[in-house]
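Please check this chain.
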Amino acid sequence: MTMARPDTQVGPALRALAHDSASVRMRAALAVGTAPDPRYVGTLVERCATEPEFSVREMLTWALTRHGPGLTVPVLVDELRSARAQARSQALHTLSKIGDRSAWPAITRELLTDADDEVARSAWRAAVVLVPDGGAPALAAVLATQLGRGEREVQLSLSRALIALGAAIVPVLRTATEGADPRVRQHAIATEHLWRNPDAGFEFAIEEAKRIVALGRTGQEE
């Protein structure tokens, strides 16, 4: 059991998390994660919502994973209702790293289809980690509604999330390849190709999917 540190140690550490220097904030997050204390959790989560530097945000997430899920998960779940996109995205990212399935009910359809790409991508990653046994088909059906969304980076994130669900994606991809939207058909075909041949690479899968759609065929007809 971790012994609580005196306020003379906690206060300076918390203030350092908001220092003007990114390197100071990084060292503070490392120190907080190295010596966890329940009093750090709220400030760590708050800082995740505003921290501008990616590397510091990653260290903040690591520091949170060093605290018990009983302390962190409820605070992170509350953060999913924030109006700030970065707060939602980082909370989802941290929940995916913690991997506590008690957070699963908080991964709502609204988050999985969030208008902000970074929030949606974080929700997809968290969902495939936290989905309970037997929940893959329903999750795949929701994720399939996002096929064709965004640019390559976003589409690759969705494809990876779907592929992580395994064979549960086959029916939803088959349906998507028969839809009216060519972007959706292309993305669905590319995802299936990548699932069946992961060494092919996403760029190759997308270009092959474009060719198939242009020729008026689906992946199942190849």
Q: What stands out?
A: The CA atoms of residues 29 and 60 lie 6 Å apart.
